[in-house]
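pinned: reference chain
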Amino acid sequence: MFQLSIDCFKEIFECLEDDKSTLYSCILVNRFWCKVSVRILWRNVKNFNTSTFNALISYLPKESKEILDENGIIISNPTSEFPSFNYASFCKVLSIDEIYSEINVLLKSQPTILPQNLKNCTRIVVQEILKMYMDQVPSLRSLVFLNHQIKSLNLNLGAKDCLKHLTTLRCSSNISSDFLYQLSQICYNIQSLIIEFKRIISHRLADLISVQKNLKSIGIVLHYYLTIYDLTNIIPPLMSKLPDSLIKLDIYGGDRCISLSFMTNFINLQELQLSFNYNSFTNFENLQYTTFPQLEVLKIRRMCPSYKLLINFIENNGKNLKELYIGDFTGHSDSILNLAIGKFCPNLRKLSTGFKNDELETLKLVFENCRYLESIMIWCGEEYLNEKEAFETVMNYSLNIHELILYHRFHTQVELLPKELESLLVRWKNRIQRSLSLITIADDRGIDKNNENMEIIKKYIELGVLKKFKAINYDDYSFD
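pinned: its structure tokens
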């Protein structure tokens, strides 16, 4: 029974992973709480602050401290206490960029570090911290290495065990070939790989990709200054080395187009995310008739391909789709795309799209044909439906919706009055099958800015009509 109690405690603490202040408070309760909380806090270097890194430097082994001394790197006020735990060994998520940034801030405040020596001193300290991690972390789960300030790092012998079971890697294309080669000799079991392609593209990326045995997810970030040569002659052939077992692909494009024909090999894709700017979506014709028999999630952020091409794609792949997101910059001008969604995507659970003022009948048709819909994001404002129309249509015609997201178009004034909001919630209460999660995405003119609205929302949360209410600013919103 006591063991069960400990396991329950640990599960509760896991839920606090993103709540650093609460975890710090838990450290002070007793030794057991401290032991569990410390492991979670030190799991991810993103939880660290400058004082944490100050302490971490003081825990460096003797050999590393001697290297710092030899280079005139003296850190003021390090703790002299012997650490209660082997903090470095708890790390599971390591961001070299985060370490570099915090160490740079820390050294900048040291009077003994001259400005002209700051970059080199930062690199030396980061190298020694990473050596300690490689020696003391039994098995790292995630590694991020994007920083252009550190082009090369030497992995010590401990890295073989530390990185052997690495499952997530995010890196840039311009990190040193030697480092990529070292990774390719150690890491064979990466499941999620994100590559930010920059002006320099290491030839060793191909080695790293080709040795992966369990790669399931790939993210491709294309920076705007890539050349046509990079996008035509380097990146697509590199992507052809990806295994056909890939189940998730995310491409975030810059201002130039990239051929998408390499994607036709990934017949096992379950999730596809595409995000391009205005003139970068000219190659979707390569995909319009491709069938991905296992595709369940399609997210098109920002701009959209032409309606004809996308409709052809949805006709081939819509049957198995469970989630469909159409980006808010698409500005499609009539109901043709929404009609295709209603016709070809009968098994959707989540949908995000826009319905204009004259598309109420189209929205009703979507609800009639997509009977499993549980969550819908509807754009509001300008030429699109207002909040009341969207809410009423969901209430009158949907069968299973229990999450409504109102996405207010940029700089539009929220029109839903308090008395209208309460009337809608009363009606939802009378037809209630499940309590409603209501989410709004807006700027500083959202529903939540009206005190009377918030009193009504609080009331109906207490009554169980609303499961939750959340107001999200544009800058904090993500498709994910």
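why pinned: The mean pLDDT is 83. Residues 1-41 form one domain.
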